[in-house]
Amino acid sequence: MAIQISFELSDSDLEHFRSLMKAAQKKASEYSSEQVIEKARAVTKDMDGTNLPDFVKTRMQSLDTLIAAYEDPEWQMPDDEKAEILTSLAYFSEPHDLVPDNIPGLGYVDDAIMIELAIQDLSQDLDAYEAFCQFRKTEENRRGAESNVNRESWLDSKRTELRSGMRRTRQNSKRRRVFSRIM
Questions:
Q1: Which range among 36-40, 50-54, 59-63, 143-147 has the greatest average pLDDT?
Q2: Which of 1, 65, 132, 157 is buried most deeply by CB count within 10 Å?
Q3: What pLDDT, on the 0 to 100 scale, is given for residue 169?
Q4: CB 33 within 8 A of CB 59
Q5: CA of 132: how far to CAs of 70, 75, 163, in Å?
Q6: 59-80 pLDDT per residue, tens
Q7: pTM of the predicted structure, to 2 decimals
């Protein structure tokens, strides 16, 4: 039997998580971008081998997608978007857990919250990247052996379309972002 538990983070709760993120970013500034990515990847790898609750697993998949978007050479992410992802991953390069990870069922709740907050800020980026990956896969299947012919051309047009839509939506959005642009 599943049970649903929900809670609301107040402004002071969010401020607490922002301060944790800022502290993590300060510490992560000692690392290269490659080291931040590698440390975040190590966290996902460590969690992969454990029996995580579903609410953590789904958020870990989003963290993996952020890392994949950052590293995907065909996505050609602009530097400002890469910087946003790195700031979001900073917490996972030096996690200061509120809840120790070895507590079954609850140990990763703070990690899941930080991922959720980062994902909310980067949801349009993730949606655009996932649409790009789906387009790329569909085109590779449709074109077969010819998928490499003019590959950059057909990927570039889709990339441009997705990024334009993402930026338009971001500019029109009245939703307050939790982390981005404050770090």
A1: 36-40
A2: 132
A3: 83
A4: no
A5: 13, 8, 10
A6: 888 888 999 999 999 998 888 8
A7: 0.75
Please answer whether residues 79 and 170 qualify as being in contact, where contact means their C-beta atoms are separated by less than 8 angstroms.
Answer: no
**Residue linked to tokens 């972002």:** 177
Pick from 119, 139, 141: which is nearest to 131 by CA? 139
Rounded Cα–Cα distance for residues 6 and 134 (Å): 32
Q: How confident is the model at residue 97 (pLDDT cuts 50, 70, 90)?
A: low
| Calpha distance 59→55 (Å, rounded) | 7
